[in-house]
Design brief:
The protein is mainly beta. The chain is built from two helices and 27 strands.
Length: 389
Amino acid sequence: SGQDTQCSGRDQIPGLKDQNEWKSNYELYTELLGAGVPTASLQDINLNRQALHIPYNDPFFEGVKGLQGAFKWNSGDDGTKDWYPQGVTVPHVLLGDSDLASNDYIAVSWYSKETPNKGVRISIVDPTTLKYRHVLLVVMYEDNSPPTGADSAPNYMEVPVHAGGIALVGDLLHVADTWNGIRTFNMSMMMEVQTSQDVLGLQKDGLYYAYQYRYIIPQVNTYLNVTGVDPRYSFVSASLDYESGDGLLTLGEYESPETDGRIFQYNLDITTGKLQVNKKGLVTTPSDCCYTPGEDRMQGAYYDYSSEELALSCSSQVGSIGALYVSEPNELNGPYKQDVWVYGCEDLTKGRACCGFPQDEVEGMYTLTEHLNNRTVFSVDPLFYFGRT
């Protein structure tokens, strides 16, 4: 039962409008292929870095219940000040798609703090071997004064967002764009580019580069906030209910203790991975879709269909240590139960358990941590948090 732009909640929910750029972006992608840029697939990319298992008894996780598996990045990525990790997702399989094997990876977003700003990169992690690779997100455009001297040529630029949360549904990667809405990328449209120059896009030599990243993933659409409500889209996660066929994207606001951050929910089409829209192109919502949980410094949220509860990952709740909060069933405005979480916690998602956890089909709830030399990704058993009496 979708609403056009609003639902019950503290305020009118920000109305997201589908900018319907799917076709024009596909044409740009086809032009890039025609210009000699080869395609690449997730199955074939060379995972050239090695993450490290973290043992269960590591004091970093002291007090965290149900830990399943954890890793940290290699020392260069763990300690870099050029990039900061923010969002985590595992692929949510579309309704009717049984191809699980090709979807077995973890994706993590990082935002650039370099000059020039390189935008957003995504780490593709094999959860068994813990090998990984960074790929760069890009926005394609038609360049009417390309460096080659041609009249026009397809080109691309970096993605200037914080990428505080990501949600992968089928091939579509939804990325939170803090002040604007959601940017959507297509993992199956990955391309391979030249790596010998630290430059971006088409160069005078007629070749394409991406700051020495070998692979790029293009933006295919945007969902833009078109209302007067001034939201802050700090994070995003996807929830899919295969029994009912329903799906939700849950987004929310990171706010300081003085301001109540809100949670927003939008309808997700779990057969395509796209957001559901009405005839005007506005994204529809469930009848209840705007909540004020009353917890500050929200970094991630995940809605669990089976228990009808919402989990919140909030940083710096007990000194510098974060807390995980879980609502009562269908009581997303609170009160919330508090559990021990970790230092520097960020985004939340749920999928198959992390990092060689022995039972393959066991679910795990994931977060990641962002601080220098304390950058972890881990999953916990959701049964320790959801559905408690």
